[in-house]
Amino acid sequence: MTDRLSASFYTRDTVQVARELIGKRLVRLDGKRRIAGVITETEAYRGEDDLACHCRSGQTPRTVIMYGPPGKAYVYFVYGMHWLLNIVTEKDGYPGAVLIRAIHPEEGLDLIAKRRNGKPQKQWVDGPAKLCQALGIDGGFNGVDTCSNDAHVFVETGIEIPSALIQKTPRIGLEKVPEPWRSKPWRFALTDPNLILRESKE
DNA sequence: AGCACGATTAACT
DNA sequence: GTTAATCGTGCTC
Fold it and tell me: What is the distance in angstroms measured between the alpha-carbon CA of A161 and the sugar C1' of C7?
C-alpha cells in the first residue's frame, strides 16, 4: 500500500492545492534510496489571465504540460542554468501548477549533501532550484505522472499544519509582473520549519 | 548582513 | 533581441 497523493488531490483550485501541499512529503526515489522531506514553501500559478504564469501566452511547447491532466510534474529551465519543479493542477484542459520552493529534508540526507557539494545544511534546499539540484531533478522529469506507482518523484501524505503556522505572501521573483498579479497572496510558507524538526525527532 | 551582478540557454516577441 | 517563477560570489557598510 502507498499513501501517495492521487490525481483527485490535484484536480482542484491551484491556490487551495498549494496551501494543502504544505506539510506533505516530497519523495524522490534515487535508485533504491529515498530522498524525502516535508514541503515548507509553495506557490500557485493558474490560468492564462495570471500574468505571472507561463501560460499567459497561451499553450506553447513549453507550457503544454500545464494544460494537461493534473498530477504530472512540470519541470522547466530558467536563467540559463536552473531547473524548477512544479506539479500540475486543475482539470485537464485548464492550465495550473504549484511550484515547490522548499522542503525540510528528513531522508537521504547524505545524498542531498553530496549533490549540494559541501554547502551548509541551511542552504541545501531553501530555494526551488537548489531543491531540484539536491534531489537530482531535471528536464527528464518533465511530464512524469507523479500519481503513477512507478514515478520516481511524488508526494505522500504528511503532517497536518495549522493555518496559524502558514504565512501567505506575494509570490517571489515577479518584480516586472503587473498588478494585481504581482501581489496576489499565492505563496505559502511554514513560518518556522523548526516546529517540524521537533515533531519528527519525537 | 545586505546588495549588486554575472552565469548561460531556451522560449517567446 | 530580450527576458526569465534563481543562485552564488564578491563587495561594501
Answer: 29
Q: Whole-model pTM?
A: 0.95
- In Å, what is the separation between the CA of A2 and the C1' of C7? 35
Asked if residue A3 lies in contact with residue A157, where contact means CB atoms within 8 angstroms, the answer is yes
Looking at residue A188, what is its pLDDT? Answer: 97
Question: pLDDT (tens digit, 9 = 90+) per residue, A153-163?
Answer: 999 999 999 99
Cβ(A39)–Cβ(A25) below 8 Å? yes
Distances (CA, A) of A4 to A136, A169, A201: 20, 28, 23
Is residue A193's pLDDT more than 80? no
* pLDDT for res A182: 94
Nearest nt (C1') from A95 Cα: C5
Task: Name the nearest CA neighbour of A130 among A80, A85, A87, A190.
Answer: A85
Enumerate the domain spans of chain A: 7-201
- Domain A7-201 fold is 3-methyladenine DNA Glycosylase; Chain A (3.10.300)
